[in-house]
Amino acid sequence: MSIDADQRGYVSATAGPTITARARRSPLLFVGLALFAIIITILVTQSRPADNQDLSIENSAPNGSRAVAQILRDQGVGVRQVNLLGDAHIEDPEHTTLVIVAGSSYLSSAQSDSVAGYPGDIVYLGLTAESLEAADPDLYVDYAEPGTAVVANCADPDAVAAEETRTGQDSISTGGLAVPQAELCFPDANGGYAYARVETSHGSRTFIANPTIASNDKLDELGNAALALRTMGHHESVTWYVGSYADTTTLTWGEDGSAPDRITANPNFLPPGTADALFALGLAALVAAFWRARRFGPLVTEPLPVVVRSSEATRGRARLYRRARATGRSTAAIRGLIALRMGQRLGVPRAAGKAGLLEAIARATGRASGDVESLLYGPPPANETAMMHLVERLDQLESEVHRP
Amino acid sequence: MYITGWTVLLAALGAVPAAITQDRGVTWLWMLAVVALALIDAGLAPKPSTLGVRRTVPGSVRLTESTTGSVTVVNNGRRRVRGAVRDAWQPSAGASSTRHRLNLAGGVRATFDTHFHPTRRGDRHADRITVRLQGPLRLGGRQQSIVVSDTLRVLPEFASRRHLPSRLQRLREIDGQSAVQLKGAGSEFDSLREYVIGDDVRSIDWRGTARRADVVVRTYRPERDRRVFIVLDTSRLSAARVGDAPRLDASIEATLLLTALATRAGDRVQVTAYDRVERARALGTTGAGVMPQLASALAGVEPELLEPDWPGVVRLVQGRLSQRSLVVLLTTIDTSTADSGLLEAVAALSQSHVVMVASVNDPEVERMLKGRDDAHELYAAGAAARGALERDTVSTRLRQLTAEVVTASPDDLAPAVADRYLALKAAGRL
Prior knowledge:
A: Rossmann fold, 14% strand, B: alpha+beta, Immunoglobulin-like, Rossmann fold, 12 helices
């Protein structure tokens, strides 16, 4: 073939070592890489965002309430947690208990209002003034002495079954003389109550003043378990909502008060799927990084020469003069150089010495010899101003000598 | 292994199913599929070893001028090869258009040009030739760098060659001068011509006069076949920058101009670059081969951060020269050079040779000398004046040792050295 004849002078790429050969040479690297890959895979597949929210049913820590949810499920009650109020697609409010876990700080008044109209039973774990007022205008939130054991002392079957519980930070107060329609239980020494149940036109509203009775570590104390399970277990399903600052959505309802087909989060201006598309684009950006990061051959280095300015020594000396304010030394050098140049210009031999030079300059410029002498050989200037004046006059003298 | 922009585009398209399904799992699957496709594509790409590459480099180029080299790629396999090739050079080679697309059928070769516009003198080295071979899907491919070492020699600029015609003109004038007052035995008989009033009566050739009716005089021409020995000092002071270039570059310019001139004048030139050892030399060539040889020899000379070894220079010169010659020392006149033994070297050399010492003045220091605006500038002027006085002292001592001293700014050094050479020649001092 004709190519073979022309092949002299061509260099071919030598095949690099195969992967097995490389692995044999540096096994540690490959073991490390494999371990890294395995660890990353495990972390990615196994990790769920750790839920450490108070009273979340996914949280198995002491402050969570996974235990309640598990027991309810064992008893045939479907428990579902929603993170956004707007996401609570409740198909059958008649048979769904809505559990709202929210201190007053987590539930905005708009959210409270939207919840208050829910056409089914609600259990509030923790009190908010708005929801209490919406249920019964005669009830208020008051402070309580935490940790006090209180007995039911009322007719509510759930409370009676629980017999005894403890107070939390808040209590339900009747605000003095008014006689509320609510069933109030677990009175404490200060006239507050830890439990209230109000039958409204929408459904029953149960308030448990101390939300921690449903937490994993407090559930087995006194009658907490009975109280929590009985109040939440009236219907076959429970929708559990834990309030947070991040959620600003509300429960929304149709015109006729029934649950709408689709509850839209509010506010949400972006079309659905935006976050997922952005996530995909983020991964694509990662691929793009690999695309750009792969160099087309290695960088070529340039051996750089030293860069030393020739004038650096002179500049260094100038800085020394300036720091020492060496006006005398500086002026002496300028005087010397000007005298040298004038001497060369006037053709004064070096052997002529000071007197010969002064005489030649005096003759050339028409100045008095003493004047020239004081300029060239006078005392050094005392300060910078004097130096500037002297150098100015020296330049003047030199220009007179150089004048044609 | 590399991936192309198409892979990125395909990955970005994953946003569409992600938005529709709203499922992260789909996104991950899509990305994995894209990466797997790219990997498979790279695996299907032809192997780089099926290609042969060859680089063609022009032998040398003068600094500031451009030249063109090429890379030839041959496809030794049967499959068509698509991809790219990169001809890598170090940055100062000034290589442009180094990347080319590759599309070769089996058994075909292609040549790609690389243009050079070097920015530094010396040997500029080529790096690897990298080839990228694209897979059938154009998503990924194989990449490999092939070591092919080549060198582009960048010769000194020789910007001072524009001074050469005027100096040659001057040389001819010197040649034509009649009855130059020549001293010593070196003067050469040239021709006879008629006596004109003013000629030295001692140069009347009585034999010739007797043969003819007129009085004739002998004319002489400047000596030919003199020797000029140029020493380039490459020690630490030659590294200092004057303007944009190191002092050494001005010395090289001066060397080139002087060599060109002296060669035309019929003299024989030897050049050495020396600090503590000889870095480069050019000698023994005559005629048209002198300048290329010299430029090539000086191309790779770089300043060394070493103290100069002046006794070594004296030994070298005395070893190479047997007859009286002009020795040109291209160095730096400075108090430190005086201490380093330059004066002793000049004293030793001037016993048997004519010595010229040439040095570059720094225009920036000249500017500092004129600064009068404020106290800072006055101190700078004082420092510059002190330096000038010290250099003058050294120059005076050199002159006392009968050496010729030339100092000039970098651009003027070469013509100044050439002029001094012509002056010496005219005076018959060579």
